[in-house]
Design brief:
- By secondary structure, this protein is α+β, with helices and mostly antiparallel strands.
- It has 2 domains: 67 residues, no CATH class; 163 residues, no CATH class.
- It contains 10 helices and 15 strands.
- The protein is globular.
Length: 319
């Protein structure tokens, strides 16, 4: 019996069932992500006594001592030192970050594909939505102060937050965000991170910082934003936007001392042209085609996940 359970747990059918359960709970059809796979639950195939999906999941999880569920603590056992994957954050003890072109850091949240930025020292998991939610200015009155609160801060933590399903809201941790300004685009990553930590602000939803953008690449020449303008600093954070697509910019939390706000141009095209900026400074009240927000949240520690983190088999939160 346990051997059959083990085989079933590791099968694509089981992963689909778990995904379908979560999607049905949050009101999103599984067909959204598996349009070509019509899978029907059949307990004669699984060998289980349960006659429904929820019962099958409960039976598997409660009766099998070798469950394939994982946690943040298990994920960080698989850190790497080269290539795409999860790395120790060399600037912050106990923190782990995903780096490279396409590491296996995909996760389903709110019925959508997000990606894991980091596993924090407090074991919360920091994730970012894969697609921009809207095109807008960082702050319409150009104050460059996230805690004011900035226009985008208000939108993310009220209007956007209220669009999330209840299951997802319960996973979000109200967390401290590093919002200190960066004094100089020539500052290295370590200095920039320390500057960002100089001011913190607590809320539910934020954005990536400029240091997180720089840390995600494997190119050691991308130690500061000025270097990033003249080197290929592409990483998974660029989300594979096609080369030459110049109308996509993504705001970060990190303001500059010139009352502007850093934003990340997440387009690969600059790698072929040193004259094209990969990261720039723009006025906080700028609103132009392609500028917008990728929401970031911290989800609570101790959650259980199924999946491998691959885009075709993303992590699915089950508790």
């Amino acid at each position: 019996m346990k051997e059959n359970l083990k085989k079933f747990i590791n099968s694509k059918l089981f992963v689909f069932i778990i995904t379908a359960l979560v999607f049905s709970t949050i009101g999103v059809s599984a067909a959204t992500y598996f349009p070509s796979n019509d899978v029907t639950y059949d307990n004669s195939t699984s060998g289980l006594s349960s006659t429904n999906v929820q019962g099958a999941i409960d039976e598997l999880y409660n009766n099998c001592s070798n469950s394939s569920a994982t946690t943040a603590e298990n994920i960080i056992k698989n850190i790497v030192t080269s290539g795409d994957g999860l790395y120790k954050d060399e600037y912050e003890k106990g923190r782990y970050i995903y780096r490279g072109a396409n590491p296996n850091n995909y996760i389903i949240f709110n019925g959508e594909l997000w990606r894991i930025i980091s596993i924090e020292s407090d074991k919360t998991i920091k994730i970012v939505k894969e697609n921009i939610i809207r095109e807008d200015a960082w702050d319409t009155i150009d104050k460059s102060n996230w805690a004011r609160p900035a226009t985008l801060n208000t939108y993310l933590n009220s209007t956007y937050y209220n669009t999330l399903n209840e299951f997802s809201k319960k996973l979000i941790v109200t967390h401290n965000w590093n919002i200190g300004p960066s004094t100089n685009p020539n500052n290295n990553i370590e200095t920039t991170k320390n500057e960002e930590k100089s001011i913190t602000y607590k809320n539910n939803i934020g954005l990536i910082t400029i240091s997180e953008y720089l840390q995600a690449t494997l190119n050691t020449s991308c130690d500061n934003l000025n270097l990033a303008e003249n080197n290929d600093c592409s990483s998974w954070i660029t989300f594979g936007i096609p080369s030459g697509d110049v109308n996509n910019y993504n705001w970060t939390l990190t303001a500059s001392t010139y009352n502007d706000v850093w934003y990340k141009n997440y387009i690969y095209y600059f790698a072929a042209s040193s004259s094209s900026n990969y990261g720039e400074i723009g006025a906080a009240n700028s609103s132009f085609t392609g500028s917008g927000a990728l929401p970031v949240v911290y989800i609570k520690q101790g959650i259980k996940l199924f999946g491998t983190g691959e885009k075709t088999n993303p992590y699915v939160i089950i508790s």
